[in-house]
Amino acid sequence: MKIALLGSSGYLGQTYAQSRVPRGLSLIPIPRDQLDYSNPIILRNFIRREKVDGILNCAGFTGRPTVDACEDQQQLCFQLNVLLPELLAKVSSDEKTPLIQIGSGCIYQGNPSKTDPNQGFREEDQPNFSFDYPPCSYYSGTKAEMEKRIGHLPFVSIWRLRMPFSSQPDDRNLLQKLAKYPKVLEARNSLTDLNEMVSLTLRMLLAGVPSGIYNLTNPGVVSNSEIVEMLVAHGLRKLRPSFFSSTEEISMAMRAPRSSCVLDSSKIARLGFPMCDVREALARAVQAMARD
Length: 292
Ligand SMILES: NC(=O)c1ccc[n+]([C@@H]2O[C@H](COP(=O)([O-])OP(=O)(O)OC[C@H]3O[C@@H](n4cnc5c(N)ncnc54)[C@H](OP(=O)(O)O)[C@@H]3O)[C@@H](O)[C@H]2O)c1
Fold this sequence. Notes:
Elements: E1 2-6, H1 11-17, E2 26-30, H2 40-50, E3 54-57, H3 69-72, H4 74-95, E4 99-104, H5 138-150, E5 156-161, E6 164-165, H6 174-180, E7 183-184, E8 188-193, H7 194-207, E9 213-215, E10 218-223, H8 224-233, E11 242-243, H9 247-253, H10 266-270, H11 278-291
Parallel strand pairs: 1-2, 1-3, 3-4, 4-5, 5-9, 6-8, 7-11
Antiparallel strand pairs: 8-10
């Protein structure tokens, strides 16, 4: 099975490109400077010539140094997070070649239950942190808009992750952020162990799981202060950060509102692809970081 990998130079794309791919599957990274995958004719010709069985789109715009950059670069953000996936979905439908689009859990705020704070949003729940349900960040708005436009199409899958972490250094890694930030927002979230998610999704691809939306988070909910304590305990952070104490203080420091949310990942577990408990995954990553 041959899968074209778009956005292979990015944080997620590189993790896929460098991963150990199971036998029977090959990922073909497509460098943007060698093949303009935003041009549907060029992409279509590539799919036909190389007999590609699927497209995994890790290209997108997340904003650097933080998601606030999306507020300033709205046009590029919309182009990469909404219009490019829409174009890819059209090519995928024409060629009957599945498209896997990377999505995000940041289209939700909070959790769906008034009584159980650990209950998560399921795949079919309507986003409540989106252009349709403001306020939201521009970034989250584009991710929800993308789902609205292509999430229902027969050849499209959306793999939603949330605040990815691993033991490898990268300014996108949640553990690295929480090891460095002088001031932290206290929040409870579902998280994604990036390496576990990558190897699990490659197995899902090979097994031919049906197209659809999938929440790819580790079961369990964890707070930023708990993660900080793990980092301190392993010597990865000497001083504890201060935490934002009021919404006024947060809005002075951050231009866009942030999503904190709980996702339900039981759908992948029911299909035979469970992810391990979030605290177990965090402990493994923090220990590996402390060792390296
Ligand atoms: N990082 C996170 O915390 C996170 C969390 C949830 C979801 N996601 C989603 O995961 C996907 C990948 O995110 P990421 O963190 O890997 O992003 P990233 O590191 O910024 O990489 C994005 C990639 O997009 C490609 N790209 C295509 N056109 C571009 C353009 N005009 N300008 C800049 N880059 C362009 C580039 O790859 P090539 O040059 O190889 O084409 C680039 O490396 C996105 O859909 C994002 O929304 C990320």
